[in-house]
Amino acid sequence: MIYLDYQATTPLASEVAKAMRPWIEEKFANPHSPSRWGREADAAIEVARKQVEQAIGLSGGSLAFTGSATEALNWAIKGTIEKSNRNRVVTVRTEHAAVLDTCEWLEGRGVEVVYLPVGPDGLLDLAEVEAVVDERTALLAVMLVNNEIGVIQPVGKISAIAHRAGALMLTDAVQALGRVPIPDGPDLVAVSAHKIHGPKGIGGLWMRQGAEPMPLIHGGGQERGLRSGTLSPALCVGFGAAAKLASERRDADSEHVERLWTAAWEALGSEWILNGSPDHRYRGNLNIRREGIDTARLISELRDIAFSLGSACASGSGRPSHVLRALGLSDREARSSIRIGFGRYTTEAELVDALKRIDAAATAQENLAA
């Protein structure tokens, strides 16, 4: 199989698997136990916490481990509203479902939510952001790197707008961690291990001091007194090892992705159109469309190539991508789009081979329809 779905998940790094193994096997103690083994597990978790915080690269705050980035985003949004005397959330139409569905849930409980549009390139208009973020706003939530089209929002500038209005800033940095720098400014940052060659089942919420949301999960307060539940030393250690590796390999990974991006466009035919900004984007995300192509059929015909039609979290819904529709694409154009994701362990040869086969299959469809 040629794996080209890096935005859905990434292959587990061998270094991460090696770091996790002792904590899966002989070092199984509860990290919240006062025993020597428990204290050892707790110490390993604290090392992992520092490794993830260093990869995030922001100062003046700390990380709480969560079961996923979805939990982190729910916690950040719901907990901020619960703590605030303001009753408005501002977000973007192209956010992940973890943000949009949480906002919809809040709307059902009387919270006002403003959904900002994006341009055809997927970028926000900062003047529009400034126009709606005011003294009624508790939280502004904007993803740093979009999970479907890879577009990078100017989160540093957007944070400044939020702070001028006295609002907090949340950024979903799941697709950014280890790939692009997280700019200073956000008060809350959600991250995930399995997008940076770590294990599934663990995420985190970085919180600037004083911006901590109210707890979402109750029952012991094991994590910073804010999140209850027994932590998994194996998952925490795996996240830490993946974060450390991402920090060490950031330049090499970035150069590799740039080479792959160039090779990809050389392999594709001229009929393919890029979705989203060509400049303000993470280049390991190639979201493209070709007029009239049945992309679901492409996936069925090329079963030994893993690629997607959009967000893995929304696959199977039958609806065209809400992100692509927000760019102004028609349902037909959205359904003619595919997402190719590549990164550290993708070779140029397999990427070129896969894209040539995808292009050939699309051409064959066109010839049959002619």
Compose a concise summary of this entry.
The protein is of the alpha/beta class and 370 residues long. Helices cover 40% and strands 14% of the residues.
Structure description:
By secondary structure, the chain is an alpha/beta fold. The chain has two domains: 2-8 and 249-365, Alpha-Beta Complex (Aspartate Aminotransferase, domain 1); 14-245, Type I PLP-dependent aspartate aminotransferase-like (Major domain) (Aspartate Aminotransferase, domain 2, 3-Layer(aba) Sandwich). Helix content is 40%, strand content 14%. The chain has helices at residues 14-24, 36-56, 69-83, 97-107, 126-132, 155-164, 233-267, 295-301, 322-326, 331-335, 348-369; strands at 2-3, 61-66, 88-92, 112-116, 137-141, 168-172, 188-192, 203-208, 273-274, 285-289, 305-306, 337-341. The strands form three sheets. It has a seven-stranded mixed beta sheet, sandwiched between helices. α1 (14-24) runs antiparallel to α7 (233-267) and α7 packs across α11 (348-369). The protein starts with a strand and ends with a helix. The mean pLDDT is 95.
Total number of strands: 12
- Provide the low-confidence segments as ranges: none
Kindly state the percentage of residues in helix.
40-55%
CATH class of the largest domain: Alpha Beta
CATH topology annotation of the largest domain = Aspartate Aminotransferase, domain 2
The coarse overall form would be globular
Brief descriptors of the model:
alpha/beta, 40% helix, Aspartate Aminotransferase, domain 2, 370 residues, single chain, Aspartate Aminotransferase, domain 1, seven-stranded mixed beta sheet, 12 strands, 11 helices
